[in-house]
Amino acid sequence: MNINLTLIGQSIAFIFFVLFCMKFVWPPIVAALAEREKKIADGLLAAERAEKDLELAKHKVSDQLREAKEESAKLIEQANKRAQQIVEEAKQKAIEEADRQKAAAEAEIAQQMNRAREELRGKVATLAIAGAERILQSSVDQQAHGKLVDDLAAQL
After folding, report:
1. Which is higher by pLDDT, 119 or 59?
2. What average pLDDT does this structure show over 92-118?
3. Nearest to 33 by CA among 45, 24, 41
4. Residue 127 near residue 155 (C-beta atoms within 8 A)
5. Alpha-carbon span 153 to 138, nearest angstrom
């Protein structure tokens, strides 16, 4: 056999093999590679979108958290103001009740003083009458009258 003929035969077979591969094998491989490349690109885009969405969600969560903190601070402030208002109202009611009780006590004291005065007037009138009876029953003597008035004053 001749090397040249073998070489030519192998070259022709190789050319047929290459043409066959280019016609039937290479297009599905290229299509699969293109599809794979497209999937990878889509996956990267989806990952970038997901990353952006995650950042947006983080910002949104931080904003909502800040708003919730502000709202809770406002609610606490309102509750504190309401508590202070209730305390002030209770103080005012206590002062009003104390004033009312004080006024009632003063009125009762005034009534008791009036009763005591009336009682005292009655006793003084009784003593004056008793003193006048004694003076009139005894003789008109300056020393005796003085002694009776002193006794009367001591009884008052």
Report:
1. 59
2. 91
3. 41
4. yes
5. 18
Cβ neighbour number for residue 135 with a 10 Å cutoff: 16
What integer pLDDT is reported at residue 153 of this predicted model? Answer: 63
Greatest CA separation for the chain:
196
Residue 47, both tokens = 């990952």
For 140, which DSSP code?
A: -
Tokens (6 digits) for 110: 């005034």
Distances, alpha carbon 16 to alpha carbons 5, 29, 55, 132, 137, in Å: 16, 19, 57, 168, 175
Contact 112, 137 (CB under 8 A): no
Q: Do residues 156 and 127 lie in contact, with contact meaning Cβ atoms separated by under 8 Å?
A: yes
Query: Which tokens in the block code for residue 49?
Result: 């979108």
The residues, any chain, with a CB within 8 Å of residue 12's CB and separated by 6 or more, are: none
The domain locations on the chain are: 3-117
Chain segment 124-147, per-residue pLDDT in tens: 767 777 777 776 665 555 566 667
